[in-house]
Amino acid sequence: MRKPLRVLLFVAAAALVAAPAGTALAFNPDTLVTVGSPSSPFSANKQNEPAVAIDANHPTVLAAGANDNIDMEACNAGPDDDCPFTEGVGVSGVSFSFDSGTTWTQPTYTGWSARHCTGAPGDDPPCEPRIGPIGTLPGYFEAGLVSDGDPAVAFGPVYANGEFSWANGSRLYYANLTSNFPGQEGFKGFEAIACRASMARPRPG
């Protein structure tokens, strides 16, 4: 029996959580957020549609989401007509900062990946995705789903003892499009909206 991914299928809008009044925040506008993504080959170095959120109770803590092709096959691998996407591989990237955005961490998880499909100049070897390192949201492959990007991120209180309360801690809520993994039917239809509501605020180190 598959362990279900803690996602809610619903239409969600996530708002940017602002820092408390009077809090001074210093941001570095020239900082690379997707630090785990390689500079080449294309399209592992392609990100778009970013979103960012600040933890209101810990204003030095930020989270960013983006469509990220870090786990896709290289465009010089496999058929040329499927670039830049690899069937079944997710694109919902996530990064964290613990110093008001000055430096960022892009975690590496495990899931369905095509990072190993790099090819060589003039050579288009077939790409066979497999379980491996991913820089996108974890847990989707195990739930028979694919994270399809279009992120919305927000920090909010943790639900415990029958209520949402900041006293219970902070939690990152990440909403994105999702589809069924090839050959699976986790939900009816072509596309859904998932909210990863189980990402507790990570701590540095």
Keywords:
single chain; 205 residues; mainly beta; five-stranded antiparallel β-sheet; three-stranded antiparallel β-sheet; 0% helix; globular; disordered N terminus; disordered C terminus
Structure description:
By secondary structure, the protein is an all-beta fold. It is 0% helix and 36% strand. It contains no helices and ten strands. The protein has strands spanning 7-9, 47-54, 62-68, 92-97, 109-113, 130-134, 145-147, 152-160, 163-180, 192-200. The strands form three sheets. Strands 1, 7, 8, 9 and 10 form a five-stranded antiparallel sheet that branches. The protein has a three-stranded antiparallel sheet with strand order 2-3-4, with no helix packed on it.
Q: Helices, strands, pairings?
A:
Elements: E1 7-9, E2 47-54, E3 62-68, E4 92-97, E5 109-113, E6 130-134, E7 145-147, E8 152-160, E9 163-180, E10 192-200
Antiparallel strand pairs: 1-10, 2-3, 3-4, 5-6, 7-9, 8-9, 9-10
Strand content: 35-45%
- First-last Cα distance: 34 Å
- What is the SS-derived class? mainly beta
Bin the helical content: under 10%
Assembly annotation: single chain
Q: Tally the helices.
A: 0
What would the principal axes of the Cα set say about the shape? globular
SSE pattern, N- to C-terminal: EEEEEEEEEE
Radius of gyration: 18 Å
Biggest pleated sheet: 5 strands, antiparallel
Q: Which regions have little confidence, pLDDT < 50, spanning 5+ residues?
A: 1-24, 200-205
| Number of E-state strands | 10
How much is the average pLDDT?
A: 79
